[in-house]
Amino acid sequence: MLSLPEVHILSGAGKPIFSTKDDDDCSNVSTAGLIQGISSFADDALRQITTPTHVLTFLPCPPLLFFCATPPSLRGLNVGRLLHLLKHHLLVFLTQNGVSLMESNPNYDLRNLLYGTHGVLMAVVSAWTSQVWPQLDGIGVRLIPIPPSTTTTRRHIQSCMDVPGLVFGLISHADGVVAYKQGLPDHPLPIEDVHVLLHILQHMPSFRTSESWTPLCLPTFNRGGF
C-alpha cells in the first residue's frame, strides 16, 4: 500500500482546519502558519515547489488554502484532483456560504462545524492513492444490478422512488448505485456529486447505523445551499 501524502487545509489566516498528520494541535498550528506564510509571501501565486524528497503543492481557494506534500512514491498521481475533492467534501457539509464565514472572520474555527468529518476526509486521501475515481474527472460509478427474481425488492425500490416532487432519488450499496431517479429532466445530478455522496455514505458511520434526516450540499449542482 502506498504511503499517504501530507495534506493540510487551512484558512487564509493560517488557522488549521484539517491535517493528515497525527501531530498535536500545537504542531499543526505551527505547520499551518508556515504553509500560509510561504503562500502569502508569494502573493498566493505559488503553486508548486519541487525538492529532492517531496513535491509541495499549494492551491489557494480564498478564504481557504490547500496544501499537499507528496513523496516520490506518489509522483504522477493527480494532486490537483485530490485537493479539488477535499474542497468538495468540505462544501457538502458547509456550503459555500458556510465557507464564506472565513471572509468576514478569518480567525473563525471551521473545525467546530466539521466535527465528525475527519475520518471522511482521511478516507478521501487514502482512496486517492489506491482507486481510480479520485484520479479522473467525470468517471462513472459502479452500477449494482438487481436480480430479476427479486420482484419484491424491485417493487419496494420503485415505491421509494415514486415520491411527488422528487428532484433526485439515489439508492446505493457500498460504493455502487442500485437505483437512481431524476425528477426534473433539465437538472441531472452531476456525476461528481454522486461520487462524493457515495464516499460520504461509506465512511460516515452515522449514516450506516441510524436513520436520520441530514442536510447535505451538492457542490457541483449548487454549492450555495443544502
TrEMBL record:
Q: Please give the superkingdom of this protein's source.
A: Eukaryota
Provide the FUZ/MON1/HPS1 first Longin domain boundaries. Answer: 8-121
Domain FUZ/MON1/HPS1 second Longin, first and last residues per copy: 186-225
Q: Which Pfam families would you find in this protein's record?
A: Fuz_longin_1, Fuz_longin_2
The alphabetized list of GO BP terms reads: protein targeting to vacuole; vesicle-mediated transport
Q: Which residues form a coiled coil?
A: none
Report the InterPro entries cross-referenced here: FUZ/MON1/HPS1_longin_1 (IPR043972), FUZ/MON1/HPS1_longin_2 (IPR043971), Mon1 (IPR004353)
- PANTHER family xref list: SAND PROTEIN-RELATED, VACUOLAR FUSION PROTEIN MON1 HOMOLOG
Q: What is this protein called?
A: Uncharacterized protein
Q: Which organism is it from?
A: Aphanomyces astaci (Crayfish plague agent)
